[in-house]
Specification:
With 509 residues, the protein is α+β, with helices and mostly antiparallel strands. Helices cover 49% and strands 19% of the residues. It is globular and about 80 Å long.
């Protein structure tokens, strides 16, 4: 096998017994597993996002290498069954993967054949494994319960629990894997996770409690000579948005709601919501209106957390340095813990599961009959549509900027949202046009977006301090300070937006 295609879910401990019972009712086999993960002393494999593992499954030994795939549920994989002599544990040898795509990946990370491989972490798991038919497909369900172990830089033994369910497509259709994943997730309250066992071990090695926030990456260029149609563009953009959303959502679901993680999850959700609105016409019917409500609910919950963080870590210290009295604000841990249930909400998880499959190439659920389904726009028409929408947004931002200081706060906020949509749509469309020109245009949007971001933060803070002032007069200092600051900042926003009028529009030939 050269790839694995699977959904991975966290299993809430309160639901573990039900999941075990459901698998046992399907005749699941129990496998005791212990594994060692290998890397060089300087971590070359981890840096290349490669995992090399030797695992004992009951009496069977398997060497496996895994690497990045083309989407959130696909990974490069190659495994070799070993026959150790005299019952001794085998040692890792990368030449066992020779002739596979994984071998080329290993060689690129380990150009020196003599590079020493060390056992850097281990796992001890009990697996319940069941093979299930779904539609025309066979899907393996594997429940792993156990722990990952490693020693940190100080030599201290550390461990992290694992309780996860994997659904892997053995053969058949991605649509069947999606449908089965939806059913199990909804029935048992499962939560998507992108955190692998190897990643958990790496965090233990580094002494990290949580992963880093994941930012948006540029959308991959089409293959040389390719001209993607409307469907291909939709899939590429959705997959790109999910590549930012899923790892950050995985952190929040486990209570790791750091400021940067929350911010990047909000950005990812905003980009996705923009894509669903602005790109639907590329192939009408692929996107569902009902997806917006669960995405918006989580986005708003994250926004409330961000607003509290804004006051606590940025504005209140600044105000106190200017002479403001201290205010009692909510502790960070209190609102961080409250975010996990929002991300675990079944409706939100269902949208993500569905969009993962779509971005990976699955036919949308409940697609219209073939005779009634609108056709995807061809490459030229798709490009023309995006150019028209970019022009319309550019014009709205330019007009809003001209009158910015005279607009109401609501209208000013609308201009800021239009600017964000313009930026995201420009990012989505960039691979279809001249990339250097697109990058120049996007760089030209950054100063205005930053300036409007500060202005919006202060407007939000003013509203929050006014609410607090009704019960705590100490908040009046902040109300006065922000009220005096906003007019000057509005003028700066108008000036920054004015520069966009002169920007060369990369979608114009």
């Amino acid at each position: 096998m050269s790839t694995e295609v699977e959904y991975k879910f966290l299993v809430p401990r309160a639901r573990l017994a039900d999941v075990e019972a459901a698998l046992q009712a399907q005749g699941a086999e129990r496998i005791e597993m212990r594994a060692h993960y290998y890397d060089t002393e300087d971590g070359r494999l981890a840096a290349a996002r490669i995992g090399l593992r030797l695992r004992q499954e009951n009496a069977r030994w398997v060497q496996t290498v895994k690497g990045p795939g083309r989407g959130p549920i696909e990974r490069l994989e190659h495994e070799v069954e070993l026959r150790p002599e005299d019952g001794a544990a085998p040692l890792p040898r990368i030449e066992r993967h020779e002739g596979s795509p994984a071998f080329a990946l290993l060689r690129s990370a380990l150009p020196d054949p003599a590079a020493a491989l060390l056992s850097v972490q281990g796992t001890q798991m009990t697996r319940l494994r069941s093979l299930q038919a779904q539609g025309a497909s066979r899907i393996e369900l594997a429940l792993d319960v156990g722990e990952v172990t490693a020693r940190d830089a100080q030599g201290r033994a550390r461990s992290a629990p694992v309780c996860e369910l994997e659904l892997e497509l053995v053969e058949g259709r991605l649509e069947d894997l999606r449908d089965l994943a939806l059913r199990w997730a909804q029935r048992h309250g499962l939560v998507l996770s992108t955190i692998t066992k190897a990643e958990r071990g790496l965090r233990l090695l580094k002494g990290q409690e949580a992963g880093e926030a994941v930012k948006a990456q540029p959308i991959a260029c089409p293959d040389a000579g390719a001209a993607p149609d409307g469907t291909a563009i939709q899939r590429a953009v959705v997959a790109n948005c999910l590549a930012q959303i899923l790892p950050n959502a995985s952190e929040v679901a486990q209570g790791n709601a750091g400021v940067a993680v929350v911010h990047q999850l909000r950005v990812g959700l905003r980009r996705l919501r923009t894509a669903l609105r602005m790109l639907d016409a590329l192939h009408p019917g692929h996107f569902r209106d009902e997806w917006q409500a669960p995405l918006t609910a989580v986005f708003r919950a994250l926004g409330d957390r961000r607003d509290e963080e804004l006051l606590r870590t940025r504005l209140q210290p600044q105000l106190e340095a200017a002479g403001a009295p201290a205010l009692a604000l909510a502790a960070a841990d209190d609102d961080a813990a409250a975010l996990a249930p929002h991300v675990a909400d079944p409706a939100f998880q269902a949208v993500l599961i569905t969009l993962i499959a779509f971005g990976s190439g699955a036919t949308p659920q409940e697609a219209p009959a073939a005779s009634a389904e609108p056709a995807a726009l061809g490459a030229a028409d798709a490009r023309a549509l995006l150019a028209r929408r970019l022009s319309a947004l550019h014009k709205k931002v330019r007009t809003g900027g001209r009158h910015f200081t005279a607009l109401s706060p609501r209208a000013q906020h609308r201009v800021r949202k239009q600017l964000k949509r313009l930026r995201y749509l420009a990012e989505f469309a960039a691979p279809l046009f001249e990339r250097k020109a697109a990058r120049r245009y996007l760089r030209g949007l950054t100063p205005a977006q930053d300036t409007l971001g500060v202005y919006n933060d202060h407007q939000v803070a003013l509203a929050l301090y006014r609410q607090r002032a009704a019960e705590d007069p100490r908040a009046l200092f902040a109300v006065g300070w922000l009220s005096a600051t906003l007019p000057r900042e509005a003028a700066e926003c108008r000036k920054a937006l004015g520069r966009i009028r002169k920007a060369d529009r990369f979608w114009k030939s």
